[in-house]
Q: What sequence folds into this?
C-alpha cells in the first residue's frame, strides 16, 4: 500500500430525486440544476485529468440517461445510489431488495455498468442493507461513519445490548464488504443549502474550505495510506462561488506530491491488496 494520502472526490447526482416528495414545483426544479452542473464538474475534472466517483440513483439514470453516459465516458466511476433516493430505514426487506435491484437495472440499462460500490440515499441504513450488499456482490459501501480517514470491514449484527445479561454493545460479525466512511461535515449540502423551514446554512465557501482543508491537512500528516473524501452534489457545489472554491482547493491539494487522486474503487482495491 502506498503511503500517500488518497483524495477521493465524490458526487451524488440526485437531481429531482431529492425533491420528488415535495408538492412544490419550485422545489422540484432545484434538482434540475444538478443536470446543468454535471458538465461543469466534468470539465473541471478533465482540465486536471482527474477521475472521480459519481453516485447515481436509478431515478437519475432513467431521467438523464445521456448525462450518465457522459459521466461514464469521462472515465469516472459510477456507484449505486438507490432507486428513488428514499430512506429505507422503515421499509421492509422486500422493498429494500427491490430498490437495490431496480437501481442496478437502471444503471445497466442506461450505461451498461454494474457498480461495485454503494452509497445509501441520505446515508440511512439498516443491518439488512449490508447483508443485501454482500448478497449482491458489492465490494464496498460508503454510508457509515465509524472512522474518518481509514476504510474498515463492515460488520453485520451490531446492536445495543441490555448491559445486564449481555454487554452494553454487541459487535456483529465482520464481512468482506469494505466501508469507506462518510461525514456530514465533509458533505456540501448541510453547509450550503437553504430549505425553507428545515435548513438555513448558506455558509460562505471560505468557511467550508476551512473545514475540508483542515481535514485534508490533518489526514496528510497523520494517516499515511489513508483517504480524504468529500461528498458533493452537483446541484449544490455547481454554483459559481462554490465552484471557484472547489477548483482552488483541488489545485492546492494537487500541489502536494504525497497525495494521489483516485476513484473509490481503485482505492479500495489497493487497500484490500496484500502488502508486497
Ligand atoms: Zn443523495
A:
Amino acid at each position: 500500500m502506498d503511503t500517500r494520502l488518497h483524495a477521493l472526490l465524490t458526487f451524488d447526482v440526485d437531481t429531482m430525486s431529492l425533491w420528488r416528495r415535495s408538492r412544490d414545483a419550485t422545489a422540484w426544479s432545484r434538482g434540475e440544476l444538478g443536470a446543468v452542473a454535471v458538465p461543469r464538474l466534468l470539465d473541471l475534472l478533465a482540465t486536471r485529468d482527474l477521475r472521480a466517483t459519481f453516485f447515481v440513483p436509478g431515478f437519475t439514470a432513467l431521467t438523464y440517461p445521456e448525462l450518465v453516459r457522459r459521466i461514464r465516458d469521462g472515465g469516472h466511476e459510477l456507484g449505486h445510489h438507490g432507486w428513488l433516493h428514499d430512506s429505507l430505514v422503515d421499509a421492509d426487506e422486500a422493498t429494500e431488495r427491490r430498490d437495490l435491484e431496480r437501481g442496478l437495472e437502471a444503471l445497466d440499462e442506461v450505461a451498461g455498468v454494474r457498480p461495485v460500490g454503494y452509497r445509501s440515499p441520505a446515508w440511512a441504513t439498516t443491518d439488512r442493507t449490508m447483508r443485501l450488499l454482500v448478497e449482491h456482490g458489492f465490494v464496498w459501501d460508503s454510508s457509515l461513519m465509524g472512522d474518518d480517514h481509514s476504510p474498515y470491514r463492515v460488520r453485520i449484527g451490531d446492536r445495543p445490548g441490555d448491559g445486564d445479561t449481555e454487554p452494553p454493545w454487541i459487535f456483529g460479525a465482520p464481512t468482506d464488504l469494505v466501508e469507506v466512511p462518510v461525514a456530514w461535515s465533509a458533505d456540501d449540502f448541510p453547509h450550503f443549502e437553504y430549505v425553507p423551514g428545515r435548513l438555513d446554512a448558506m455558509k460562505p465557501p471560505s468557511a467550508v474550505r476551512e473545514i475540508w482543508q483542515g481535514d485534508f491537512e490533518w489526514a496528510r500528516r497523520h494517516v499515511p495510506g489513508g483517504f480524504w473524501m468529500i461528498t458533493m452534489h452537483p446541484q449544490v457545489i455547481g454554483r459559481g462561488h462554490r465552484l471557484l472554491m472547489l477548483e482552488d482547493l483541488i489545485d492546492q491539494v494537487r500541489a502536494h506530491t504525497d497525495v494521489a487522486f483516485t476513484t473509490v474503487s481503485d482505492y479500495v482495491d489497493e487497500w484490500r491488496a496484500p502488502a508486497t
User: Anything to note?
Assistant: The longest strand covers residues 5-12. The longest helix spans residues 93-111.
